[in-house]
Amino acid sequence: MNSTLQSILAATASFFFITLLFAFICLLCKSSKTRSPRRRQHQQQTVNWNGNRTVPNPQLSSITIDESATFDPNLNRISMEELKLATKNFSADLIVGDGSFGFVYKASLSDGVIVAIKKLDTNAFQGFREFRAEMETLGKLQHPNIVRILGYCVSGADRVLIYEFIEKGNLDQWLHDTSPGNCNEQSSKLPLSWKTRIKVVKGLANGLAYLHQLDTPIIHRDIKATNVLLDSDFEAHIADFGLARALDGSHSHVSTQVAGTMGYMPPEYRDGVTLATVKADVYSFGILMIEIATGE
Questions:
Q1: Which among 124, 175, 169 has a CA at the least distance from the CA of 147?
Q2: Which segments are annotated as binding site for ATP?
Q3: Where, by residue number, does ATP bind (predicted)?
Q4: What pTM, to 2 d.p., does this model score?
Q5: CB 198 within 8 A of CB 207
Q6: Which residues are catalytic, by number?
Q7: In total, how many domains does the chain have?
């Protein structure tokens, strides 16, 4: 057999081998595609603090998410339907605050528990895994000067947070809205005494120290009077963690956006510095102390 014939036979055998290999790979890919939609089907889950989940619902689409979680053992599972009922379908008449990324509603659940419901704006959305991770982190916070998040509920495009209800409203109202009105406590407030103001400052300091001294510190990034709630004993509670971030090992967080409120933000923020540290919270706390002392 001459060398030319050997070359032709070798080329022909190589061609058939490569063709068979390519056909085998195509069959594998086609088989994988037919099975993948089943794995991507939506799973409807109800999660409690112990991590229990319901049986997945294979009939829902892959982009739809329905999930609820509770971080308080005394709070039963809450569905979006119950939250809509408790807020009269998020009626404007029940709005008690306007926090970052959403309105806050006062609601009475079916068991009589009064809670604060915050419905997030669509522009506040992030990846669901990141959202769930942040909620579970905030759900673990236990301090008398931090507003407790009791749970959350997600249904389709709606994301709702459930907080403990703090009776006296935010600090800003008590500092600046003290003109006499009718007998309604929300419209008629007496100026805070010096004793109460010092109590508020101490409570804020304790709450911030708790956040900053966690194993993974949390920076609030928006300390201001409207984000401080007062209970019936005028104890201060830090609220609205919409801009909060957990810090990495270097105790810093790099953000592409300036976070906070003008007047409370440190001066370097105006220069475009995006490195956020606990020092930013301390600066905002100092500004707030001056506001508490002067009322301005």
A1: 169
A2: 119
A3: 119
A4: 0.71
A5: no
A6: 222
A7: 2
Contacts of 132 (CB under 8 A, 6+ apart): 67, 69
Question: Residue 277 belongs to what domain range?
Answer: 169-179+190-294
pLDDT tens for 173-199 read: 999 975 554 444 444 578 899 999 999
What residue numbers does the annotated binding site cover?
A: 119
Q: Is residue 28 part of a domain?
A: no
For 106-173, the DSSP string reads: EEE-TTS-EEEEEEEPGGG---HHHHHHHHHHHHT---TTBPPEEEEEEETTEEEEEEE--TT-BHHH
Kind and range of the H or E run holding 236? strand 236-238
Instruction: State whether 155 and 173 are in the same domain.
Output: no
Residue 21 lies in a domain: no
CA distance 106 to 92: 10
3-state helix, strand, coil in the chain (%, to 5): 40, 20, 45
Q: Quick one: 84 and 100 in the same domain?
A: yes
Pair 130, 175 in one domain: no
- Convert the pLDDT of each residue in 12-29 to its tens digit: 666 666 666 666 666 665
